[in-house]
Design brief:
Layout (H helix, E strand, L loop, with lengths): L7 H8 L5 H13 L15 E7 L7 H20 L4 E7 L15 H5 L19 H15 L5 E4 H6 L4 H9 L1 H8 L5 H4 L5 E3 L13 E4 L4 E6 L2 E6 L5 E3 L1 H12 L6 E2 L3 H13 L9 E2 L2 E2 L16 H7 L2 H9 L6 E2 L5 H15 L4 H6 L1 H5 L13 H11 L5 H11 L9 H18 L10 H15 L7 H13 L8 H13 L7 H8 L1 H16 L2
Parallel strand pairs: 1-2, 2-3, 9-10, 11-12
Antiparallel strand pairs: 4-8, 5-6, 6-7
Helix pairs in contact: 2-3, 7-10, 8-11, 10-11, 13-14, 17-19, 20-21, 20-24, 21-23, 23-24
Length: about 550
């Protein structure tokens, strides 16, 4: 069965019972809008199901931004597979937030410092390219999302506030001011509670987003009273005269826009609870959503921008494919996962394995296959002729002489008709492998000398390889490798001990590929030369 053989009716039937997490999340939205058991649903008053993802534009987009938009998109597509209700995805930028501190990675630090406290859209662009700092970062966000082909509608907090789109919701906040205070005050420290206000007026004097106590004067007119530079003033919060504290802002946005689904990280769990209560006070309801776990570094510690212990999107795409990143983001979103350079090779190969299995699977298993969600059911059929791990080992043994041209020369001997033009995905992985080897493998590569038994086994392998034609197949070679490892004469307690010896003495690694595939790719004569080098190390001891 090919992907095209799955009809929309078959897909809907299977999606309604699939245990894959995007379908489980989508069923929450379906149930919210109607009968989640049968797939029947009623379009909300706004005429569509609304998915949202938020972004703070005080910094540039990063791997977490990709992660959240990708996962939300997967849920959106899952919903579309089981419902005819139109959908929309809003990427919302909180660009009316006041700048609290100057980021370390931008120019014109002194200029930015002179504008601390002002809305990000009211601060000049330190890069000198856009109308404001927020406009610059918003442009980077849209460029970032467009790069990966996400379908979304961009919304600016400043534009929403200043256009009056949030005015009715802001009046609702003033009408329910005390009820919101009753929700928030118990969650705050005493010193914070003393000055807390759900409403943050934009000072008509300084332009700063003020965090001061306010008094509601007239909710319908949007009037409040507060102290500004020692003077008591009355001020209208409508049409951009104020913004809300972010937990209140979050709830107000859910209600004003009618958000049906928004996921967020575990670190915002308590915030989600408070915002949900506020949304109810405002006459709305908290959207459905997944609370995902945060990424950890290789030591199991929480990733922190200030520590610099994270992995950037650019770093991942230097050493691995975009699809492998999407695969890693898909897997077990409710479990904490380590995110560091070392996870990339495995993610690349596991993505390829799932992709290779997809077309032989039943529809039920396909819907649980990560590649179905990565490609929205339109999974390309071309499978790679070699694994990424095999590429890394090939590049590793080539050492300083490794180049793309040399890699392709080996590949063309291994697979008939393989060229960079015919295999663009493989071409990308060759570049990834060369970069990974250059930066992480080559500097640490060290091949050990074999012990006496291992040396005897290597001599036998060399002899048997010498009797084979140069174009011998991977399976035939693998059979020879297996037979030697199982031969009690060489004293290996288990096959894995023989394979480990091969990896450590020939490749300089603790793990490696199927040796039959590697030898067929690298060439029998080249592989015999590796064996000779290993035996020379033994003789030199």
């Amino acid at each position: 069965m090919t992907a095209e053989a799955i009809s929309p009716a078959q897909l809907r039937e299977a999606a309604l019972v699939s245990k894959a997490w995007p379908f489980e999340e989508a069923r929450k939205v379906l149930k919210r809008l109607g009968d989640g058991a049968s797939g029947a649903s009623v379009a909300p008053g706004k005429g569509y199901a609304l998915f949202e993802t938020g972004y703070g534009p005080s910094g540039l987009p990063h791997i977490g931004t990709f992660n959240e938009v990708l996962r939300t998109t997967m849920v959106r597509h899952a919903f579309e597979a089981m419902s005819d209700i139109p959908t929309r995805l809003i990427a919302f930028s909180d660009d009316m937030d006041g700048l609290r501190k100057v980021p370390d990675n931008v120019p014109n630090q002194e200029m930015l410092a002179s504008h601390l406290g002002k809305p990000l859209t009211a601060i000049p662009d330190p890069f000198g390219k856009y109308e404001s700092f927020a406009h610059h970062n918003n442009a980077m966000l849209r460029e970032f999302l467009d790069r990966f082909g996400f379908e979304y509608e961009f919304r600016s907090s400043t534009e929403q506030y200043c256009s009056g789109a949030f005015d009715d919701a802001l009046r609702g906040v003033l009408r329910n001011y005390q009820a919101i205070m009753d929700i928030m005050l118990p969650t705050l420290r005493a010193e914070r509670a003393a000055t807390y206000s759900p409403v943050l007026p934009v000072s008509p004097k300084s332009g700063i987003v003020l965090q001061v106590p306010v008094e509601v004067v007239d909710a319908e007119a949007g009037l409040i009273r507060f102290q500004d530079e020692g003077e008591t003033i009355e001020h209208c919060i409508l049409k951009g005269g104020a913004k809300l504290q972010w937990k209140v802002d979050w709830a107000m946005r859910w209600v004003a826009l009618g958000v049906d689904y928004e996921m967020y990280g575990k670190d915002l769990t308590d915030s989600g609870v408070q915002s949900g209560k506020i949304a109810k006070v405002l006459g709305g309801r908290k959207p459905e959503g997944l609370i995902y776990e945060m990424f950890l570094d290789e030591k199991g510690e929480k990733i922190s921008k200030s520590k610099g212990n994270g992995l950037s999107l650019e770093e991942w795409l230097t050493y691995g494919s975009e699809e492998s990143l999407a695969f890693y983001a898909y897997r077990e979103p409710k479990s904490a996962k380590q995110l560091h350079i070392g996870v990339i090779p495995r993610a690349v190969d596991e993505y390829e394995q799932f992709r290779g299995a997809y077309f032989d699977q039943s529809i039920e298993k396909r819907l649980g296959n990560p590649v179905h969600h990565i490609h929205n059911g339109k999974v390309p059929e071309q499978a790679l002729p070699v694994s990424f791990g095999l590429l890394l080992n090939l590049v590793g043994v080539m050492g300083a002489d490794a180049t793309a041209d040399r890699v392709w020369a080996y590949l063309s001997n291994y697979v008939e008709g393989v060229t960079p033009e015919a295999w663009p995905r493989l071409a990308g992985l060759v570049d990834n492998a060369l970069a990974y080897n250059r930066d992480f493998i080559a500097p640490t590569l060290k091949r050990r000398a074999p012990d006496e038994n291992e040396a005897a086994a290597l001599r036998e392998l060399d002899a048997q390889l010498g009797a084979l034609p140069e174009d011998a197949g991977a399976e035939e070679i693998q059979g020879i490798v297996y037979a030697i490892g199982k031969d009690p004469h060489y004293g290996f307690e288990a096959l894995r001990d023989w394979f480990k010896a091969l990896y450590q003495t020939l490749l300089g690694a603790d793990q490696g590929p199927r040796m039959g595939s590697f030898i067929a790719l690298y060439g029998i004569e080249n592989s015999r030369y590796l064996i000779a080098q290993a035996l020379d190390r033994t003789a030199g001891e």
